[in-house]
């Protein structure tokens, strides 16, 4: 049987993320990844070292994707409160149904356990908050820290949707954020 063509680290890390998201972080082994991407476990060990290193690199790769998506959405969002809502709704599109969302919480657990991944989360929080603040720059009545307040409301909306997943997550998030922005605007008058 001929050897498969060499795959880039990015392709291998995408396969690793697929395993993590479909079967949980503990399912990622050199053997399972080898079966998924067609490379031998020995080759994967040479490339990534340890299972912990492989998992960390896969999750850092996921953070790279989220950073890129956030930057793209922020650049295209109108600099208005509606633009801030659109940015967060855009970030909500990939959550899928409740099972996918619930499995994603296992990935969050991994991010919280690892200092390098936690640092990436903190950096993303800061970048997202700034992007949301920028959407309110032309609104002098917006409260200080509106970016982090809105990001926090978004994360809360995701969690509450998870307990009662009626309808799509994006529409639930959008409704919640519109109520939030309406309450902020009303309270500031």
From TrEMBL:
It comes from the Bacteria. SUPFAM superfamilies: Homeodomain-like. Residues 29-48 bind DNA. GO terms for molecular function: DNA-binding transcription factor activity; transcription cis-regulatory region binding. It holds the Pfam family TetR_N. Keywords: DNA-binding, Transcription, Transcription regulation. The keyword Acetylation does not apply. The keyword DNA-binding applies. InterPro entries: Homeodomain-like_sf, HTH-type_TetR-like_transc_reg, HTH_TetR. Residues 6-66 form the HTH tetR-type domain. PANTHER family: HTH-TYPE TRANSCRIPTIONAL REGULATOR BETI (PTHR30055:SF234), HTH-TYPE TRANSCRIPTIONAL REGULATOR RUTR (PTHR30055). This is TetR/AcrR family transcriptional regulator. It comes from Mesorhizobium zhangyense. The lineage of its organism: Bacteria, Pseudomonadati, Pseudomonadota, Alphaproteobacteria, Hyphomicrobiales.
């Amino acid at each position: 049987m001929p050897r498969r063509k060499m795959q880039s680290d990015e392709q291998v890390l995408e396969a690793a993320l697929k395993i993590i998201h479909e079967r949980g972080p503990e399912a990622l082994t050199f053997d399972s990844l080898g079966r998924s991407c067609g490379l031998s476990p020995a080759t994967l060990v040479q490339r990534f070292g340890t299972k912990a290193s492989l998992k960390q690199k896969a999750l850092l790769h996921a953070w790279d994707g989220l950073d890129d998506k956030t930057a793209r959405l922020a650049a295209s969002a109108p600099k208005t409160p509606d633009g801030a809502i659109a940015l967060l709704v855009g970030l909500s599109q990939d959550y899928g149904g409740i099972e996918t969302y619930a499995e994603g919480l296992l990935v969050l657990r991994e991010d919280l356990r690892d200092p390098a991944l936690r640092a990436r989360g903190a950096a993303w929080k800061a970048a997202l908050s700034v992007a949301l603040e920028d959407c309110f720059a032309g609104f002098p009545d917006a409260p200080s820290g509106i970016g982090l307040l809105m990001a926090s409301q978004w994360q809360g909306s995701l969690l509450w949707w998870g307990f009662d997943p009626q309808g799509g997550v994006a529409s639930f998030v959008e409704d919640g954020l519109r109520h939030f922005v309406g309450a902020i605007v009303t309270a500031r008058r």
